[in-house]
Every structure is written in C-alpha cells, then in structure tokens.
Design a protein that fits this description.
Largest sheet: 12 strands, antiparallel, barrel
Number of strands: 18
Strand order of the largest sheet: 7-8-9-10-11-12-13-14-15-16-17-18
Structural class: mainly beta
CATH architecture of the largest domain: Beta Barrel
Strand content: over 45%
Number of helices: 2
Distance between the termini: 70 Å
Order of helices and strands: EHEEEEEHEEEEEEEEEEEE
CATH topology of the largest domain: Outer membrane phospholipase (ompla), Chain C
CATH class of the largest domain: Mainly Beta
Helix content: 10-25%
Length: 349
C-alpha cells in the first residue's frame, strides 16, 4: 500500500484546538483513521471536539462520542488532504504530509514564545518594583535531644525604601519554641513606619505596631501613632532617629478575657551604629506611657549585634536581644520578658 499516513499527536492537536487552528478533515466516506490507546482502530470522519470529547462519524453514517483522553492519534492519507487556497485565491496542489505538522509546530512555538514573554515581563516589573527596597532576612533555630527535648525557631524580615520626600520601613519577626512538649515561646510581630521629610532633619511620622504573644495570654495588641521626629543621623551605616507623638492602643487578652482600649503616648529611639571589628549595633526602643496614669506603661527594646561573614557584607551573624516590660500584665503573667537568639542574616540593597 503506497498511501502515506499523516499523524497528529495529542499535544499538538490540543494546541491546535486552543489557538483556533482548524484541523483539516475529509468528506464523509473518505478514509480517516482514529487510533485509540487500547489498540482499537476506527475508520470514519473527524467532526470536531466538544467538551473534551471527539465526535466521530463511522463509514455508515453513525456518529459516536469518544473521550479525548482515550485517543492515541488521528491519521489520514495524503491523497485525502483538502486542497488549500493561496492568498491570491488560486487553488494549489495538495501539500506534502509535513505541511500540517509544520503549521502546528509553528503555532505551538508562537504560543510558547508568547507565554514566555508575558512571564518575563511580569517578572521584570516585579523585580523593578522591589529593586530599590533594602531587604534583610534572618533565620535561626536550636534543637536539643536527650535528657531534654527543645525546639526553637526564630525568623524575621525588614524592608526599607527611601525617596526624596519620605522613607518607609516594614518589619516582621517571630519566635516559636517548645521544651519537653510544652510551649516555651510563641510570639509574632508586624510593624510599619512612614517618615515624611520636613525642613532640615525634622520629620512627620505615622507608625503601627502589632503583636501576638501566646505566653502573655495576648491575642492581639495594636498601636497606632503619629507625630514629630528628628534625624540626628540618617546614613547607610549610621542612624539616630527619635519619634514622639500621641497614640491609641487596643489590647485583647485571654484567660481571663480582657479587652482594653487606651489613649497613650508613643516615644521611639532608632539606632544603627558601627562598632568594633567591622560589626554593627542596631537598637529600636519603644515607650508607651498611659496619658491617664504614668505608672502604667510598656517598654520594648529590640537590639542586635551583627558581624560580617563575607566581604560584600550580605551575610551576617546576628546576636539578638529583646526586652519587654508591661507594668500591667494579664492576671498571673509576669511583667518582664527577655529573649535572646542567634541568627544568620542576609541583606540586599
């Protein structure tokens, strides 16, 4: 038999249907072959796809529906290929069996190229959008097995962006630990601050502080504040900034359930300073005294001593310290908490 069979594989067939490229079919009664994955072969005519099924007309006119995932290939002879019309409207000779495959391959390449282009453009726009942010990520862990069993994790991130008129800081941190099956720490913090430049080194600021601490019976503490600040230093490696203003704090405790909404004051000192051995000391201290009773206040101080691990200064070893004091803790809780940790820090920007 000298007939030349043209085969269309399923992936190309799918692409063809997706882009709207018509698969040539022959007239009823001409030999078109459908091969199924179970080895069965049917002759007839392909009438098209609908809802994942192929409509197939058998030689005697009977039409059946076949699930597309059961189909191995569609085949038809070269002599049965429909004649193509040229751009000038003149009928041309029947093309070789490779013509349709070349067309499908070209369409597939165009789709793949278009999808790749869209992905690359989205990626570049995302990178461009965050490229001017200074980013710092840190992670640490401690595991002890034997006479005692301890699991401890800490992670954090800081993001900063400075323009001619304002600077934005966003940071988050978390500590989670268990000792002999008992929870020893479960604290998560997310903060944000925006400074607006004024004359000289003066600034206006808006800040929000948010915290969850299971061991303090604290379901949520949120503070919103705004006011005035002053930048004594604001360089890449040297920073000394103060902020002060009115604030409002919402607290929700459990065991027992207590909900507090209090007006208070907000004061903050932000320090970043180089020290010995090419290390850097960071500190941010927040003070929240109540405007109704100055004996009621909260103090939070977060510090870190960072040592460079590479010449570029992207990798650092951090010894972190956090002290928190609450003069009016929930019932049965202590007023002071002190946390220390060691982390590996990666900084970019």
């Amino acid at each position: 038999m000298n007939s030349l069979f043209h085969k269309i594989s399923l992936p190309i067939y799918l692409v063809c249907m997706a882009v709207g490229l018509e698969i040539p079919t022959v007239q009823a009664g001409e030999a078109e072959i459908l091969r199924l994955k179970n080895g069965e072969t049917l002759t007839g005519t392909n009438l098209g796809l609908l809802d994942g099924n192929l409509e197939w007309e058998l030689p005697r006119g009977t039409r059946i529906w076949i699930a597309f995932d059961q189909i191995q290939a569609v085949e038809y002879t070269e002599s049965d290929l429909p004649e193509l019309i040229s751009q000038e409207g003149q009928q041309e000779d029947s093309p070789s069996s490779s013509y349709i495959l070349d067309e499908l391959t070209e369409q597939s390449s165009e789709i793949l190229h278009s999808a790749t282009t869209v992905f690359e453009e989205a990626y570049e726009q995302t990178v461009d959008h965050v490229a001017d942010w200074t980013k710092r990520m840190e992670v640490g862990a401690r595991f002890i097995d034997g006479n005692s069993n301890e699991r401890y994790f800490n992670l954090g991130g800081q993001f900063e962006k400075m323009t001619d008129v304002r600077s934005i800081q966003m940071d988050f941190s978390g500590n989670f630990g268990e000792n002999n099956g008992e929870r020893s720490v479960n604290r998560w913090i997310a903060n944000g601050t925006v400074d607006f430049d004024r004359e000289g080194n003066k600034i206006l600021f808006v800040t929000t502080k948010n915290e969850y601490d299971e061991l303090e019976n604290l379901d949520y503490r949120g503070t919103l504040s705004g006011g005035l600040g002053y930048r004594f230093f604001n360089e890449k490696n040297k920073r000394l900034i103060t902020r002060i203003g009115p604030a409002y704090t919402q607290e929700i405790f459990h065991d027992p359930v207590v909900k507090r909404s209090t007006p208070d004051l907000f004061g903050e000192l932000e320090l970043r300073w180089p020290v010995f051995w090419d290390a850097q000391f960071n500190n941010k201290t927040n003070l929240h005294p109540s405007v109704e009773n100055f004996n009621v206040f909260r103090l939070t101080s977060t510090s870190g001593l960072l040592f460079k691990l590479d010449d570029a200064g992207r990798w650092k070893l951090k010894f972190g310290f956090r002290y928190e004091y609450n003069s009016k803790p929930n019932l049965g809780r202590k007023p002071s908490d002190f946390t220390s940790n060691i982390s590996v820090v990666y900084k970019r920007g």
